[in-house]
Amino acid sequence: MAQHSILRLHRIPPALPRLLTSALLLTALAACSPGLPLLQPQAQILPGQWPAQPSGKSAPVTSTPAAAIAWQDFYLDPALQELIHAALAHNQDRRLALLRVQEAQAAYGIQSAARLPTIGLGSSHARARVPADLNASGRSVVAGDQEVFVGLNSWELDLWGRVKSLSDAALGNYLALDATQHAVQSSLIKQVALNYLALRSLDERLALTERTIASREESLRIFKRRTEVGSTSRYALTQVQTLVHQAKAIGTQLAQQRALQAHALQRLTGLDAERLPQQLSTPVVLKPVAEGLPSALLTQRPDIIAAEYGLQAAKANVAAARAAFLPRIALTGSWGTASAELDGLFRSGSRAWQFAPTISLPIFDGGQRQANLNLQAVRQNMAVVQYEKTIETAMREVLDALSSRTMLEQQLVVLTEQRAALKERARLARLRYDQGASPYLDVLDAERDLLSAEQQLVQGREALLSTQVALYAALGGGYLAQGQSSAPTPSALQP
After folding, report:
1. Of 135, 161, 164, 307, which shows the fewest CB atoms inside 10 Å?
2. Residue 16: which of 356, 300, 291 has the closest Cα?
3. Rounded to whole angstroms, how far apart are CA atoms 344 and 120?
4. CA distances (Å), 68 to each of 88, 182, 488, in order?
5. Residue 20, class by beta-carbon neighbours within 10 Å (0-12 exposed, 13-18 middle, 19+ buried)?
6. Rg of the chain on CA atoms, in Å
């Protein structure tokens, strides 16, 4: 019955020529709306290649881009994977981002439905008595009105694309928030990984310090015995005691730092302290990633994709604001059957219809439409600036990570060689002291320098791993692996 109703409405052409003529006249009047200068993104914002890095031993890479490597495949440490799973389930910011995506999706559904006509089925049944003194015949009359109809409720003919532009804007907002929640997830995973690496580094430094304390306490015991029997001086004993106290002071500081780091990891993951990793000895392994080209950031970084969707939504809002200066044409109509009696509703000759097209264009609105156009134009310019800023931030993060990785690889080689040299120096210094060729002060300096070098080496390993984590995140790590390759491209929203 609804399809028959629509066919009936299309068979009523007499009002349409007059309606379109009026629309053209009003369009000519509205065409004088002033234009506004709109910014466009800079085309040369990304270089063709990454700048050459200083020569050094580079980590082996694969041909797989970082965005195509899921975080489960990049972070190969089982304990870290468990922490990331817990953080993704617990973090309130991520849950809020997911809810905002659902909100924007529902808003897009509402705006998209406005492009389609609303057809409803209704029925009206009324009966009334008119007194004799109110009737021209001088007699009281009892009359009835029975109707059953299918109605078209004020459907706007989107000749100028206003409704479509609003729908495109809602779609852009939805896709921007969807990409944003992926950016939130990527940032959360990065925070968990960095905190985990810092915790593992502190554990390793604590283990080194505890072994040093145990070794120096054993030396202190021996020197106390030697002092008691008079084979060494109390001055040498105080030097050994100084070494022990220095190591214990470092251990206390590291224990405090580990407690603070564990609290930060607890806040991110929502886990109890007992469920956090305790003194793991296995090394952390991260999968190598390919650097790719700078232009790949436009399709692999969720924050850049979100900014581009936001820019397209802003452009669609400007188009809708411009279309508001043009006349609006709406169709309202109904088709059905009517009769004075209920049993006559479906008899021949009871068919009834109504068709009421309308056209409207505000002549004076106090500058409201122009102010709205100005507002949307400013928001588009802000979206352009935000888009460029996001790309520049992404470039800086990638360049920082690449440069840091190269420098830290070289620094790690130097620290490894330094520790080996200081370890040999400490052995020789103790040997010379035992043979009486040098004072214990040489042993004191050598032991102190060796502990410092060992701590620096552990910190250097952590810094290199942290840089690899930052590079993975800066290259959009895991975004395409989450099924985003089939998502609409921002260019599809161009109004």
Report:
1. 135
2. 356
3. 22
4. 19, 14, 17
5. middle
6. 38
Cα 292 from Cα 64, distance rounded (Å): 9
Asked if 229 and 152 touch (Cβ cutoff 8 Å), the reply is no
Q: Output the six-digit token pair for 219.
A: 């030396």
| Residue of 485 and 287 predicted with greater confidence | 287
Residues pairing with 338 in the sheet:
147
With 70 as the cut, is the pLDDT of residue 27 above it? no
| Pairing status of strand 328-339 against strand 358-360 | antiparallel
Statement: residue 58 has pLDDT above 80: no
Is 493 within 8 Å of 317 (Cβ atoms)?
Answer: no
Take residue 127 and report the two structure tokens written for it.
């009966």
Of 378, 377, 384, which is closest to residue 319 (Cα–Cα)? Answer: 377
This prediction has a pTM of 0.80
Count, residues in the chain: 495
225 φ, ψ (degrees, to nearest 5)? -65, -40
The Cα diameter of the chain in Å comes to: 142
- Are 100 and 177 within 8 A, CB to CB? yes
Q: If phi over 0 gives left and psi between -120 and 50 gives alpha, with beta otherwise, what is residue 279?
A: left
The 10s digit of each residue's pLDDT in 347-394 is 777 788 888 888 887 788 888 889 999 999 999 999 999 999 999 999
Neighbours of 60 (CB within 10 A): 5
- For residue 60, give both structure tokens: 């082996």
* Contact predicate 480/67, CB 8 Å: yes
Question: For 457-485, what is the mean pLDDT?
Answer: 87
DSSP-assigned beta bridge partners for residue 152: 119, 333
User: What distances in angstroms separate CA 95 from CA 71, 98, 146, 175, 184, one per listed residue?
Assistant: 19, 5, 54, 17, 10
Q: ∠410-250-241 over CA atoms, to 5°?
A: 120
User: Distance (Å, rounded) from C-alpha 450 to C-alpha 443?
Assistant: 10
